[in-house]
Amino acid sequence: MKLKYILLSGLICLGAGLRAQVLPYKNSQLPIEDRVRDLIGRMTVEEKVGQLSKLLGWEMYEKDAAGVRVSKKFKEAVKTQHIGLLWATLRADPWTQKTLDNGLQPREAAKATNAIQRYMLDSTRLGIPLLLSEEAPHGHMAIGATVFPTAIGQASTWNPELIERMASVIARETYAVGGKNGYGPVLDLAREPRWSRTEESYGEDPYLVGQMGESMVRGFQGHVGDEDKIIATLKHFVAYGVPEGGHNGGSISMGERALFQSFLPPFEQAVRLGAGSVMTAYNSIDGIPCSSNPWLLDEVLRKQWGFKGFVVSDLLSISGLNGSHATASNGREAAKQSIEAGLDVDLSGSGYGQNLLAAVQAGEVAMASVDRAVSRLLYQKFALGLFERPFVDERLVDQKVATDEHLAIARQVARESIVLLKNESNLLPLSKSLRRVAVIGPNADNMYNQLGDYTAPQSEDKVKTVLQGVRAAVSVDTYVDYVKGCAIRDTSATDIASAVKAVESADVAIVVLGGSSARDFKTSYQATGAASVESGKAAVSDMESGEGFDRATLDLLGDQLPLLQAIVATGKPVVLVTIMGRPLNLNWAAEHTQAIVNAWYPGQEGGLAIADVLFGDYNPAGRLPISIAKSVGQLPVYYNHSKPKHHDYIEFDAKPLFAFGYGLSYTQFAYDNLFVDVQEGSDDFVCKVQFEVKNTGERDGEEVVQLYVVDEVSSVVTPVKQLKRFARVFVGQGESKTVSFELTKVDLKLWGIDWTWKTEKGSFTLLVGGSSDDIHLTGDMMLGKDYIL
Length: 789
Hints:
21 helices; alpha/beta; TIM Barrel; Immunoglobulin-like; eight-stranded parallel beta sheet; six-stranded mixed beta sheet; Rossmann fold
């Protein structure tokens, strides 16, 4: 009996010891590399291939009166495909067919993601949590989240510190409901404004785009693994924003030097900062699709820049190799091309999946290629702490999503993004005690038209329109009349006469025109989520911008220009407010209206921010991150084109209507006392540039000071000028501020004729001013030797 007791006790202790043993990949005390290696060693080939599949997430939950739970489709995908990621689980919009009713409110979203992760831990062999990726370019694209200005507006702030704060808010709201990976920032240079996704970009300049990209990555990621932080996915790698003819996803024609000098630097900056993920672009470059380009994905991204994260395809871009690009004969060949080029994760689940599995089993793809891709993804999962903290605290959601603090930041970003383009005879700011104000136009009281693409459905009381902002700003004795007048595109319900009547009895007209990226449930969509556009088809929505809505012209559509012309003909003072996703033709307005305020898509607080500017509660200091052309015939019209300088056309000059960096204020600034000092060393130099900015007007204000450089003689052709530094500086009325910048060899480098980075000796001209075509101070800098990087 005693022997039996001893044996039984020993077995119990042995069992307890085995249960207490932690598998190496679950041991958070081990280095991540060891955990990755251990986990991969335990996975089957099917599990490895499945780990690289990122499926459409909004199909993976069910919601009804009984609550929120995982869907049958999700259980089947886990069982048969062994998936490792989901995309846009919490997304809601007309494409996903998720509305305010059948989509997820923030607390429900947290319940859904917790249910998904619980299923992965409890119902799979290895218990690997999913990485949930969410759209987050100007706010988490989910019901209830804060909506900020789109990227083109963010760039117009020229305030990286503010954009970092905004990105931290987006990360906090995304993390709160279970997302751990945010899609953004978009680092495409937008040098083709006919392109439908211009609104998603930070504009035409690589330095400004790079500064904004760094701010987004810092705000998103912080220290990866910290609470309220997510990993960033940089998009779209690379040169997606300059398609031939403006056709979204179209081919790109450029040389290696242009890529290195202009299009790759913003990505390199963000990668070296530690970005966790990069998304390939739909386009091809010099005949090689970006999703199967080993030079881009392996040589440049990983070997030259040291990228340690994972590369993800854009939706269905792997399938595009044997589809639109026709560089692969079938899906299996497309999967082979992509994974061997260095593309790790398939956004869709159909590009890899069975195609990749079959290629591996047939010996066409080495298991080492699959292991390499899986290890990159698993590393990020471990770094995020997903294995230790797969769930979110549902009780904290209300404290983290759409708080008053977040709304205040949204309003501040919107304020700082507004660009004053014209202010004849100081019509602005308007008096709050005007007798009567007429607010006119299709974008004056349409909340969705001011939000941009990649925006979830919004509750009626959440978004502040321009009309609401004006009514909140003026005195109780001011009567504010509103007439829509026309739509953005549809001409079937135009009522210019009523608009004119309202203006005739008003003291001033605020006319709100432009464009729209507001998706609706009548529009049809491609499998990629881009809108399907048919030329000549009757307009069913205002949408003329946003993914898929490329333009042949940049004119105001519908009856907007006739509406504006009729209002100007009344002789009353007219303030034009433009809400739009791309630079539109403002030639007539610039000549005939007294004031123009450009707000891009200003987000949910945009109406209040616009009113703050119109009535003087905020002195505008936004600056254009992209040039506004006079005609599509001028395109491309970006300021930093390669030498030689452009000559004029027969019809008009070659200058844009409004240049890069342009923007007015309610006060004036003077520049003086430029000081340039160069100290050369053996391996580098430091050029200190210092000057004074004085507020000579009658109001406090901010000036965006800009430093441009011209390389006078170089071994390869360089831009006519190039932005190298900027600062948004507050200067009180009558006060002066000293501004200092420093330049080193990194700032003036070029990709030489011998395919090496260097800063060459010789003369450089330094240009200091308020925009690319408003230079106040000019200095010289001389380097006595070459500097190799």
